[in-house]
Amino acid sequence: MSLTGALFLLSFAVALWFTLFRHASYGLYTYVALFYLSPQARWWGESLPDLRWSLFIGVATLLASWRVPPVPGRTPWLSTSPAKAMLLFAVWLWIQNFWALDPAAHLDASFLFTKYLLLYYLIYRLVVTPEDQWRFLLVHVAGCAYFGYLAFITPSSGRLEGVGGAGVNEANAFAMQMSTGVVVAAMLALSAPGWRRWFAIATLPFMLNGIIHSGSRGGFLALIAGGMVLWYLKPHASRRLFYVFAVLGVMLFGVLARDPEFWERMQSMETAVGSHRDEMDDSALSRIALVNAQWQMVREYPLGAGHRGTAVLSPRYIEDRFLAGPEGERRRASHNTFMTALVEQGIPGALIYAWWWLWTLRTVVRVRRGDARESKETEDPRRVALLPAIAAALAVVFIAGMFVDYIKAEVQIWFWALLASLWALRSSGQPATASQRRPAGPAPAPAVRRA
Fold this sequence. Notes:
Layout: H1 3-21, H2 25-37, H3 53-65, H4 81-96, H5 103-126, H6 130-153, H7 171-191, H8 194-214, H9 217-233, H10 239-256, H11 260-272, H12 282-300, H13 309-317, H14 337-344, H15 346-373, H16 381-384, H17 386-400, H18 410-428, H19 434-437
């Protein structure tokens, strides 16, 4: 066994002990770290026991969470809109197993969204206070920085592929995931005290470099959209520092993006969306053909064709020159998340997907208005800085999802749960006390008087 593998085993054992005997939140942070470490995909993981590490720590976290006392007055997790929508979506997926065109892929998706429902519960249940949220986000940024480091040391010619972990192993998904890390790190750099600020600043070059080497046009546009959300929601007290960091960030991106191939690819977006069909490149033409075909698929399967149904049906609706794969297996998967929900989960799935994002927009507006009504004396700068970070990350996922299918992107589940937790904190009108944050041990924690 390699030294790295041995260190991983030791760290996992320590994290498991802290999860079971200190507090369940340690298991949640370990789960997020495992998402990025992906031991099964690393050279040092070849000698490790053949375990499902994420599932193992997830079960331990679920068991430990039952010992954590609930926060008085907080909205129950299943009463939040994202949980209701996720439950309906998971149930609908299980029902669709009766007619799904790709039964194996659809069954996997049914299990996945059932898991996501439990993951949402754990995040909402354990991430309660602003400090809890920043800890979670700090692990997320550290994971993205690790991805960026792997991208930095990986020799590549062309687009960066195969560097990320499960679900984010191809260039577009990798760029989207990294872009969520960039916008969160930007708010950490703006508002975090001490070493956290310097850590966030140190991670940014690695994450930006990874985005650049991915060559993802959708990821680049999503990063710009996330930056615009940060600008719009920036804390008023930090607006001057925000502009300083924004200028420095643009300069850093310009220094890192010296490869002319990157800018040639970004400039190709103008050709991709040319006003005349004869001016468009093949990628744009294939996406237009796919969307037109998907509208026909919806008419044939109004209740959805099941997960990966677009790929199964594509040979019947799309010219062969727009398909990919070996002869006899040429297909075309969906390249737009909403169209994926509409075709593969039908009208019910599309309505649930729209509900998710309409709730997101409404909640961001409500939290923003609540923050604006606070006086400078009662305003908590660390909590106020959470909304721009979470909203910008969700904007990244939404915009990137216009160009790639991210219906199964796990990162959006994280940030929906964080936004629901932030709204619960805002709507309850009660600052969480230290006693609600105290790790749960074998003995009850002593009471802490409210300030």
